[in-house]
Each structure stands twice: as C-alpha cells, then as structure tokens.
Amino acid sequence: MSSRPTIKEVSKIAGVSFKTVSRVLNNEKHVSEATKKRVEEAVAQLNFRPSHAARTLAGRRSFQVALIYDNPSPYYVYHIQAGAQEACARHGYRLLHQPVDMQAKDFVASVMALVDEAHLDGLIISPPVADSIELLEVLDDRNIPYVRIAPGVRREEGRSVGMDDVGAARELTEHLLAKGHKRIAFVRGPENHASSSDRYAGYRAALEAAGVQHDPTLVVQGNYTFASGLEQTDKLLGLKIPPTAIFAGNDEMAAGALAAAHERGVDVPGVLSIAGFDDTDLARAVWPMLTTVHQPVRELAEAAADLLVGGDGGGRHRTLDHRLEKRDSTGPAAR
C-alpha cells in the first residue's frame, strides 16, 4: 500500500519551499497567483490532504469553526448547514454543527465551552441566537470572531449577512391584495425571532398602503412549526367571518394551515388562499404547492462562512436578494 503523500513532495513538484506550500494551504495573503496555481496543481496530482493536526500546530489557528443554531425547522437547519459547510470546505476549514437551547441557564456557558474545548477560530451564528446580547457581549469581550445570519438587533455592529424580510413580506401581502383579498390573516413566528417581527411589519405596511384596516383578530401567534400553523388556522377558520387569505410566517406553518383547511374541507385556493415564507423543500412537497418568498438560506450561510474564514474582502455586511414564488396555493378572493 502506498504511503500518504507529504508536504515535502508537494513542495518538490511545485518547485517552492515548504513554507510557501503552507501559506497556500492556509489561504494566506501575499502569494502570487502563479505560485498558488503550481501548488494547487501539485496538490491535485498527489491527491494530497493536509493533516489537520499539523496545520493547527503550525500556527495559532485550529481551522475549525462552529455553526450555532436554535431553530425548530429541520428544512431551515439543513440548508444553513449545507451552505456553511460548502464555504468552509472551500477555505480548508472544518465546520462543527452545534444546536443550543437559548432557554437553558447555561446556554452562553455551553457555547463558550465549545469555543475553548474545540479551540474554535470563530462562530457562525444563526437566528434567533444571533440576537442574544449576552452571548454577543461575551464573544466581543474575548475577541472571538463571529458572523451573524439575519440579526435583528445591533444590525450595524460586527459582521452579518441577511435579506430584507420587511420588504419581502410586504411584496407577498401586496400579491394577495392584488388578487382582491381584504381579510388577510397573519400567523406570526416566535417572539424571540427578529424575522417574525420584520415579516409582520411588512404585512402591516402593505395593508396600510392599500388602505385596508388592520384587524387584530386576524393576527395569531405561531412558533414556526407545522403544529402551530394547523392549530392557529383552525381557530381562524372558526371565526364568524373567516379570512379569505392566510399569510403564514414560514412554510412549515403554511403547510399546517393547508392541513387545517383540508381537514375542514375548505378549498385552497378556491375559498382560501395560503402563502408561506422561506421557500423550503416543503413548499413544493405539499398540495397545492405554496406561494412563498424564496429566502436564500443556503446562500446566506455560505456568505456568512465566507465572511468568517475568507477575510473581509466582501465588506462587513451583505444583503442578499429574495424573490416571490407564485404557485397554486393562492388565487382570487372568492368573496
């Protein structure tokens, strides 16, 4: 069996020093493109894989970062993980996935224990953890690098990536209004998610601009889960004058809304239009397929990882575009 290729062999084939090979592998600056190309070609020729331990011992970095999340949506978490993983792999970093419970008393301590025990070079923090002031202050005090995804507080501080949730929710609500809907219900997400407040604000702004009076009985509290969407929609459909459209704050609640409508024999979209937010895989797996806002979740996570381990070349804050996906779950108002 052949032995594992070494950095010495890479150095010999590329015609550069060991130190130069190390600088290329570690994505350090001040290496010419020609030299970088020779090293990369030698690495590919030998199928060389640098030792993680050796890289760690060679400098102060561990080449490990962690993604921190507390989110009930498996679809959202999957795409966040996939996007961050792709960027980290591209930069030669290992990504750890760490779910946390923000309600736990030792929440911040557990995150910092992970930082210390794994010798992390930084954190990618997804919502709602991205809005934990206590965690942010500890990270800042200890100078731990981090990038937040879709922060709702201190948005101008540190580094972050996000999208315009307010504008996206307004656009979706305007789509329902354009179809003649006036009684548009809104199922909110958890109160500790900034996205919930932003999407609600967009919904309210669209109603106000259209001259449609806000009806508080049409706003209900969910928690970004299928079960909460089903439960709250059942309540809405039990109103003396039910809504003609429901805008759920995410796709899982919208899927729950669809299930509630089906259970009651309410035709969608003939009698009731239903829309979601995020454009997860679930949005295309239900019937009828959901009208929703495409949030570039995977791209947001990838951009966050790029900011964390790829340097500040792209600035400290990045805003990605959304798009409205019009599908069969919404139609003209029946009344």
Query: For the record, what is the CATH homologous superfamily label of the largest domain?
Result: Response regulator
The assigned CATH architecture of the largest domain is 3-Layer(aba) Sandwich
Spatial order of the strands in the main sheet? 2-1-3-4-5-11
The total count of strands amounts to: 12
Number of self-contained structural domains: 3
CATH topology tier name of the largest domain: Rossmann fold
Number of helices: 12
In sequence order, what are the helices and strands, one letter per element?
HHHHEHEHEHEEHEHEHEHEEHEE
Average pLDDT taken over every residue:
88
Gap between N and C termini, in Å? 76 Å
State the name of the first-level CATH class of the largest domain.
Answer: Alpha Beta
Helix content: 40-55%
Unreliable sequence segments: 53-58
Largest sheet: 6 strands, parallel
- Global structural class: alpha/beta
Radius of gyration: 24 Å
Tag the structure with descriptive keywords:
335 residues, 14% strand, 434 Repressor (Amino-terminal Domain), Rossmann fold, single chain, elongated, four-stranded parallel sheet, alpha/beta, six-stranded parallel sheet
Describe the structure.
The protein has helices spanning 7-14, 18-25, 33-46, 52-58, 74-90, 107-117, 133-141, 165-178, 194-209, 226-237, 251-264, 297-309; strands at 64-69, 94-99, 122-125, 146-149, 160-162, 184-188, 219-221, 245-248, 273-275, 292-294, 317-319, 323-325. The protein is of the alpha/beta class and 335 residues long. The chain is elongated. It has a 6-stranded parallel sheet, with helices on one face. The chain has a 4-stranded parallel sheet with strand order 7-6-8-9, with helices on both faces. Mean pLDDT is 88; it is low at 53-58. Helix 11 (251-264) links the parallel strand 8 (245-248) and strand 9 (273-275). Helix 1 crosses helix 3. The chain is built from 12 helices and 12 strands. It folds into 3 domains: 7-58, Orthogonal Bundle (434 Repressor (Amino-terminal Domain)); 64-163 and 298-321, 3-Layer(aba) Sandwich (Rossmann fold); 165-296, Response regulator (Rossmann fold), CATH 3.40.50.
